[in-house]
Amino acid sequence: MSIAKKIYKKIFSEKIRINNRRNLNKLSKYFLKGNDFYCNCCDQNFRSFLKKSNGIDTRNNAECPNCGSLERTRVLLEFLRNETDLFSESNSLLHIAPEDALKDIFKKSKKIEYINGDINKNFADEIIDITAINYPDNKFDYIICSHVLGHIPDEKLAIDELYRVLKSNGKAFILTPIHPLNNTFENKNLIDEHDRLLNYGEKDLLRLHGQDFEERLKREHLNISKIDYRQHIPKEFAKKLSVGDGYRELIFVCQKEKLE
Question: Both 28 and 155 in a single domain?
């Protein structure tokens, strides 16, 4: 980290730094006016989306300059609007580590009893530890947990907790980066951020999920289906949305069986 960055972090709180980054991105939208790309989260058009880099690879047209939505955010919203009753019926929703673009939409809905939480108070309305969710059993009709489980030391406990607070017949939508060929790779000796970046693709990931992820999610009385919803979006519209390559956008629908 450069000296300038260290000074910046020392002077400004994390919350202020987050807001500064968002506002800086929003300024760029005035230079990106056009109709080639469309964000379904904020209903705005652009000449291009912003690039997104992990320090090794760069994704073009990834991030909406206005609301910050990413490829997976836009795909998930299309799925929720077209394939669920989340917005049409009265439902309770738990949103773990909420994406701002989706959080704003859910908060505006009069149908949704919306709870969002994160272990970091700067990223959500409530502090929620996914391994010890402070809500009773069978509380939520829907749960969204996108790109979270790869960061959790006790992944098994986190999945158990998500299942515990899910209502009978409720659904949890879980997303995570999925290696297209290999099973989950996890090496607890990888503690250096650079090593994690090289091996997992993100410096703060603890594992890179793979083809066995569905098996890792399995629990008694839980039905799981894997959906690549990009394939259900018309090609021209998918191009305008910039829906990614499937590495980050797969949706694992985990439905709790209806128990008597």
Answer: no
Q: Verify that 135 and 80 share a domain, yes or no.
A: yes
- Reported pTM: 0.91
Burial of 246 (0-12, 13-18, 19+ CB in 10 A): middle
From 47, 63, 79, the end of a domain falls on 63
Residue 178, amino acid = I
- 3-class DSSP string for 161-201: HHHHHEEEEEEEEEECCECCCCCCECCCCCCCHHHHHHHHC
- 99/153 same-domain check: yes
b/e map 203-242, b = 16+ CB within 10 Å: eebbbbbbeebbebbeeeebebeebebbeebeeeebebbb
Tokens representing residue 60 in the block = 């073009």
59/77 same-domain check: no
For residue range 122-181, list pLDDT tens digits in order: 999 999 999 999 999 999 999 999 999 999 999 999 999 999 999 999 999 999 999 999
Q: Which residues lie closer than 8 Å to 19 by C-beta, 6 or more apart?
A: none
Quote the number of domains for the chain: 2
Boundary residue ending a domain (21, 38, 63) = 63
Residues 202, 177, single domain; the answer is: yes
Strands 140-146 and 37-39: unpaired
Give the model confidence (pLDDT) of 195-229 as tens digits: 999 999 999 999 999 999 999 999 999 999 999 99
Length of the chain: 260
Q: CB within 8 A of 154, min separation 6: which ones?
A: 131
pLDDT reported for residue 259: 76
The domain containing residue 26 runs over which residues?
3-63
